[in-house]
């Protein structure tokens, strides 16, 4: 309770008013009662004075004896003593102007001036009462009656005043109590009822009730505080309700996203293909979280910059796409322009795709700047990056193990070829050399020499192909990726040519399967071998390009070109290249260039859509 409490002040004022009314009432009652104290005695004495006057009149007419005179005088003295009785004189106001004092003065003047001398004069000398004495007596008694009446009226007036004071006090008390009741009802009971209603409504989560109390007392201040509290509670409750609904929606999204990640992770690990396994899942995740586009960049040792592996939304087919029948990531330009990219009020989140000690790639997520990215969505995307890291790491391990296994198998095959087929070819070459030494004459000489020439050519070509094959097998053992093998091949043939063999290699990571890499490398080596051996070129360029969805391999030289301007027939190297191209599902063309020299062109569509890159063992 505050020191300056309006409610306490009002109660104090009302109580003070009641107490003051009671005090005033008691004081005035006491004063009035004191003022009429002795009036009854005075009225009795005045009444006895009337009777005493007639008694004196009667005694004055008795026998004039000495005893009678003594008795009369004693009665007269007693009468005068009654007139001077304190109970009578005190009832007469002391003010000379008071009507009662004037009447008392008239009565005493009439007594002392006329009646008393007349009685004294008449008493000892006469046995009868004169008319004058009777008249004076009657006049005196009339004045005494008037005095008695005035005393009675005065007493009745004082009693009436006392009654009026009591009535006024009672009315004032009732009015004060009624006013207090109305004030308590208005300023205490009603506000308390409103506050109780507000408390009950707040308990029922209804914050619309308001006290709307005006004033400066405690309950008004409490009502204002309640109104402010309910407003703040309504705001807080609505905010909490909205937060709860947002959290519920967020949890529902999170639950749906987790289910999506769970179902998609199985396909991601089963397909061994990011494009097939990740894009549908990422697109569903974009729609669920209201984000996108999402791009995945993989790190490759052959590229200084991260290589884009997949995207969920693009208006142009990505350069690495190997399936032009698939339109999963293609959207219209209008849709693409509405996506939250860098120039369209978008923000970017970069999440590393990594295993302990190794960064595999980066997940780029665009989201609207106006909406932001919730913590739940961020955690889901971090979970997604962990899943992708696990899938990529496991697939890299599988790929590396496959390549190592393949390299080991090729090493075994190379050793077997060297120990068996190479020796057999060497033995056949020795036998052909022996046949050449035979001096065969006659009609079969020409046929014999042609057969020997064909055998020698075939054996030399087979032996050369075997050496190339053994070289390739041994080269592949130490270089588990096509780019490194081609660089080493270019260096090898640069030494043979005496000038640099340039290499332009632009394939996305792991575009080719290990089997496709082998055949591509063999075709390049065969083309380089022919260029170094036959073209007399000073410059050779090897291009390995990805022209989606095809892989194009070209060996360009500035040599003398083909003799007849067309690809040679029955050339063992070309036949082998064509066989390898058919294995790849493509074709090799050997043509003269317009600027001079020969172009060996290989074009095929990779059968694998495998996009997970692997690094060299030493990388």
Automatic annotation (TrEMBL):
Entries under SMART domains matching the protein: HAMP, HATPase_c
Main location: membrane
Localization (cell): Cell inner membrane; Membrane
Pfam families referenced in this protein's UniProt entry, alphabetically: HAMP, HATPase_c, HisKA_3
PROSITE patterns: HAMP, HIS_KIN
First-tier enzyme category under EC: transferase
Domain Histidine kinase: 412-608
Name by which UniProt lists this protein: Sensor protein
Organism: Marinobacter panjinensis
SUPFAM superfamilies associated with the record: ATPase domain of HSP90 chaperone/DNA topoisomerase II/histidine kinase, GAF domain-like, HAMP domain-like
């Amino acid at each position: 309770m505050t020191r300056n409490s309006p409610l306490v002040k009002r109660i104090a004022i009302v109580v003070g008013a009641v107490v003051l009314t009671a005090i005033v009432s008691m004081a005035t009652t006491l004063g009035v009662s004191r003022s009429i104290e002795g009036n009854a005695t005075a009225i009795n004495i005045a009444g006895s004075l009337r009777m005493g006057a007639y008694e004196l009149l009667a005694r004055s007419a008795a026998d004039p004896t000495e005893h009678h005179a003594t008795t009369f005088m004693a009665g007269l003295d007693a009468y005068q003593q009654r007139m001077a009785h304190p109970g009578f004189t005190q009832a007469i106001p002391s003010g000379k102007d008071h009507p009662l004092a004037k009447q008392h003065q008239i009565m005493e003047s009439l007594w002392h001036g006329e009646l008393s001398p007349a009685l004294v004069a008449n008493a000892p000398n006469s046995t009868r009462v004169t008319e004058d004495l009777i008249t004076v007596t009657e006049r005196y008694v009339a004045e005494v009656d008037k005095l008695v009446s005035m005393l009675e009226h005065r007493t009745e007036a004082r009693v009436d005043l006392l009654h009026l004071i009591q009535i006024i006090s009672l009315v004032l008390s009732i009015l004060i109590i009624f006013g207090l009741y109305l004030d308590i009802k208005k300023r205490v009971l009603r506000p308390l009822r409103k506050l109780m209603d507000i408390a009950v409504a707040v308990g029922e989560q209804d914050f619309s009730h308001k006290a709307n109390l005006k004033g400066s007392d405690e309950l008004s201040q409490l009502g204002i505080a309640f109104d402010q509290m309910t407003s703040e509670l309504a705001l807080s409750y609505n905010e909490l309700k909205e937060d709860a609904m947002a959290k519920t929606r967020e949890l529902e999204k999170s639950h749906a996203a987790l289910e999506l990640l769970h179902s998609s992770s199985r396909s991601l690990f089963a397909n061994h293909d990011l494009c097939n396994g990740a894009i549908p899942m990422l697109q569903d995740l974009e729609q669920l979280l209201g984000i996108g586009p999402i791009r995945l960049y993989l790190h490759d040792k052959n590229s200084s910059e991260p290589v884009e592996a997949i995207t969920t939304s693009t208006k142009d087919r990505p350069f690495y796409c190997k399936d032009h029948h698939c339109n999963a990531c293609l959207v219209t330009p209008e849709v693409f322009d509405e996506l939250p990219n860098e120039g369209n009020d978008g923000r970017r989140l970069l999440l590393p795709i990594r295993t302990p000690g190794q960064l595999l790639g980066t997940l780029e997520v665009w989201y609207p700047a106006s909406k932001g990215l919730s913590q739940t969505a961020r955690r889901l995307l971090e979970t997604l990056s962990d899943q992708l890291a696990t899938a990529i790491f496991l697939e890299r391990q599988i790929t590396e193990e496959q390549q190592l296994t393949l390299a080991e198998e090729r090493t075994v095959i190379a050793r077997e070829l060297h120990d068996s087929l190479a020796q057999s070819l060497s033995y056949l070459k020795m036998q052909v050399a022996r046949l050449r030494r035979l001096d065969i004459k006659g009609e079969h000489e020409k046929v014999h020499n042609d057969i020997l020439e064909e055998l020698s050519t075939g054996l030399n070509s087979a032996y050369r192909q075997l050496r190339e094959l053994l070289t390739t097998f041994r080269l592949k053992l130490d270089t588990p990726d096509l780019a490194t093998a081609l660089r080493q091949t270019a260096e090898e043939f640069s030494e043979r040519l005496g000038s640099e063999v340039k290499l332009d290699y632009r394939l996305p990571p792991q575009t080719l399967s290990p089997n496709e890499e082998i055949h591509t490398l063999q075709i390049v080596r065969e083309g380089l071998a022919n260029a170094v051996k036959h073209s007399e070129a000073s410059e050779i360029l090897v291009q390995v390009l990805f022209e989606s969805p095809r892989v194009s391999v070209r060996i360009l030289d500035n040599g003398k070109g083909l003799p007849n301007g067309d690809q040679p027939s029955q050339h063992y190297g070309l036949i082998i290249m064509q066989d390898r191209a058919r294995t790849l599902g493509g074709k090799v063309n050997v043509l003269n260039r317009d600027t001079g020299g020969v172009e060996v062109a290989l074009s095929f569509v990779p059968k694998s859509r495998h996009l997970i890159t692997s690094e060299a063992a030493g990388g």
